[in-house]
Amino acid sequence: MTCIYFVEDNTVLLNNGLLWLKSEGYDAHGASSAKELSGLMENQIPDLVILDWNLPGEDGLSIAGKLRNDPETQDIFIIFVTARNSMDDRLSALGEADAYITKPFDYRELLATIRALLRRSNNNDTEQDLNTWKYLPAKSIILSPDEIELEITEKESILIQLFIQHPKKVVSPKMISEAFNEDLSIFEKNRIEVLVSRLRNKLKTGNDNPIRSFRNKGYQLMINIKKVEE
Predict the structure, then answer these.
(1) CA distance linking residue 212 with residue 198, whole number of Å
(2) Fewer CB within 10 Å: N-end or C-end of the chain?
C-alpha cells in the first residue's frame, strides 16, 4: 500500500486531506510540523510527502531540501500545497519538489497529481526491470542485464544480500561488519572500502556508479539486483 505523509498545520485541511487520501486506499498519516514528520519518518519512509510551506518552526522548503539531500529519502515524491503563489516561490519549490498546488485547491486535483506521480514511478520500475542484475547465491555468481556471468566471493555475496535487504538505503560500516560477524572496532574500515570497491568494479557498466559512497555514513546500491533461487 502506498504510504503518504501530509504535513499541514491547519487542522481542518489536514484532517480533510487524510480522509480523502484514506478513502482512496492510501496509507495516509498527518503531521503539523517538521518535528512530527521526523517522528513518522523514524517508523517508515513514505512513498510521497505533501508539504505546506508556512509551517511552525522549520518551513516546508527547508524540509524538502533535507529530504532531497538525504540518500534514504531522496527518491520520495514531494508535492507542495501552499497559499504562496508567486512565480519565484513556485520556481524555488520545484527545485526540490515534483509538483506544486496553490491554495485554495480541489482535492480531486491533489489526487490526480498523486496518481500521475505514482504512474511515473511504475513506468520507471518497468524500465528498471530491463536493467536488472541477477544474483544466484547457490552458484556464487551474478548475471549482468546482458547475461554476462561474473563470479563473486563469499564476502561480496554477503554485501549483495545486505544491499538487497535494504533497497535504496545506505548500508553503514557497522551493518557490514555485523553481517561478516566481526567487531567493527577491530574491523579495519579500509578493508570495507576495498571490498566495496571490488564489487563496484564488477557491477560497473559504462560510466555509471553502481555503489555510491557517503562520507561517514556508508554505501548505497544504485542499481537493481534481484535474488534468484535455484
Answers:
(1) 13
(2) C
